[in-house]
Amino acid sequence: MGLPTGPDTDTFPFVKAKWFTDIVNQKREVRVIVIHTMEAPEKDKTAENVANFFQGLPSTKKASAHLCIDNNSIIQCVLDNDVAFAAPGANHNGIHLELAGFAAQSSADWSDVYSKALLENAANAAAQYCLKYDLPRKHLSNDELEAGDEGIVGHVQVTEVFKKSTHTDPGKHFPWTTFIARVEHFYQKRKNDLGLP
Ligand SMILES: [Zn+2]
Questions:
Q1: Could you give all domains of the chain from N- to C-terminal order, each with its CATH number?
Q2: Lateral strand order in the sheet of 74-76
Q3: Does residue 27 have a pLDDT over 70?
Q4: DSSP letter at 94?
Q5: Helix or strand or coil: residue 95?
Q6: Distance (Å) from CA 132 to ligand 1 centroid
Q7: Ligand 1 centroid from CA 186, angstroms
Q8: What is the mean pLDDT of residues 150-175?
Q9: pTM of the full predicted structure?
Q10: Within 10 Å of residue 10's Cβ, how many Cβ atoms?
Q11: How sure is the predictor about 1, in pLDDT bands with cuts at 50, 70 and 90?
């Protein structure tokens, strides 16, 4: 597990982030998918706007993620095999997904029409990485993250376990149970569509 043994991921519009680390001549091992909120409003062009923001950052502010996701699109900013500057402690072996919206969202906010579309896009994107890197469709506990298990976590957990940042996204009302169920749904659908056992 961890090495890219499954099918390639989808091709999204690519807006290259200014900050990332190129893993030269090596296949990167990925063990966690990290969910973030952009701390940007739920708009139709938020993924595009944040991708442009990552591209235009000055040298004093290093930040990036693999995918920026909103209700109607996904923009890739860092290639799968490159390391994003997203959550210290889980950068070198993480895939980072930035979701439109705020960590402060309530449960009601996470179930509005916009969030439902966003979460479907994010779950499908996470599913392709579970397939590519042979990862369990599982929300890890902090103990499991610390122990080196494979799965899906929030940025806040990387903060709590590795203590190298202060970010608390995607927030305490992120709908983990339904999200993981949708990741599993899209994972099985992708396998079926590809005729994989
Ligand atoms: Zn974050």
A1: 27-194 (3.40.80.10)
A2: 74-76, 67-69, 94-99, 32-37, 151-154
A3: yes
A4: E
A5: strand
A6: 23
A7: 24
A8: 97
A9: 0.97
A10: 12
A11: low
